[in-house]
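tool_call predict_complex ligand=acetyl coenzyme *A
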Amino acid sequence: MTTAETSTNDTINQDSDKSTLIIEGKPYEMPVYGGSIGPSVIDISRLYGQTGKFTYDPGFTSTASCESKITYIDGDEGVLLHRGYPIDQLADQGTFLETCYLLLYGDLPQKSQLDDFEKRITYHTMLHEQMHTFYRGFRRDAHPMAIMVGVVGALSAFYHDSTDINDPVQRDIASLRMIAKMPTIAAMAYKYSIGQPFVSPQNSLDYSANFLNMCFSVPAEDYKPNPVLSRAMDRIFILHADHEQNASTSTVRLAGSSGANPFACIAAGIACLWGPAHGGANEAALQMLEEIGSVDQIPEYIRRSKDKSDPFRLMGFGHRVYKNYDPRATVMQKTCHEVLDALDLKDEPLLQVAIELERIAREDEYFIEKKLYPNIDFYSGITLRALGFPPEMFTVLFALARTVGWIAQWREMIEDPSQRIGRPRQLYTGPTSRDFIPVDQR
Ligand code: ACO
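tool_result ok
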């Protein structure tokens, strides 16, 4: 029998405590490391060498894959901190580019540092002219996420001079290039899919206003981004900027662990984000609200979501990590109201359905007992649609915003001296060794 006896406490520091793992009657001591906050971890990196056994953890629900100083989540308390700053303070008081600086460099910028950073981002927003030809190779009905994966991966073919991962200057230039060019790339994917001409970036506009301008202006008439909507867009980008070791971030780190260039790594992250269980949930939440349609239908959908024989689940409710209100959902709900007010859509029926659905679900014993609260996706679909985006662009916007988080995590990994190529092991349950039989004798 294999048993684990740990003697940990929550305030231990590195190496100040140990765990004893008893395998087949033999004890093995494992170091225990404490973080600055949050649960401590048992270092099992030498387990195989010492015991000849691996651990088994599908979905990595009990595995810390790295050490990180970027983002902290306490799912039970509903806390999300970037470099120690609560997400609601960053979203209410700062700009997306301030959050980018914070994630990349570890601290909020001084005024002169922010000015310099904004200038550097602004002057990297244009795409190599040859890339316009590249877009024209896609079918017009291509999903914009398919275009994103292709175009971002192709950046390494256009910007060779920032692909040396061992050069910190090149790493920085590649980082700024991706943060700066992602809105241009995303807007071009959108314009291409609706058959409108590409719109060049405007240096006089801030990051989010420039993005809205590239998406919604047309040569035939003037377009002036509404400041309330630009601010909402900026806040949505802040809310999605990073979320520690989720599937796409882990994908970026794993791709980067082999030494792949940063553009290729971010393309891998975008591919992972595309899946409906990750970046696609806001679209599903919007579809569900449309399907419910009116407040009087809500009890029937609540009943269905609790019925185990019915596959229906309340989209935008529940989260793998948050067993409390998702702190991003609070800000998103506020942003949703601001956008609908600014557009004079206060009576939007879907908003009424969402508010009532949330109220009923939060009083329902099933949802209370299972700790199912609204997540960030519950209000983001309504908000993005009101801003003018079609559902197939929702995940693209997520990718645009998450790029800075992926890059910050990738840089942290490259700069970590203990970093090695990622190589999980497996529990093999296939056939044991057998001899090849020629086809005419099988
Ligand atoms: N509606 C109804 N019941 C639910 C819901 C829901 N949205 N979510 C979970 N449950 C129930 C499950 O049926 C399960 O019940 P049981 O214990 O009786 O079997 C229990 O709550 C626990 O659910 P799990 O699926 O085990 O929880 P997990 O942490 O693995 O899943 C997930 C989290 C995938 C997000 C889930 O809550 C879900 O499917 N939600 C709807 C989709 C969604 O909104 N996804 C967006 C996540 S946020 C993001 O990715 C940015």
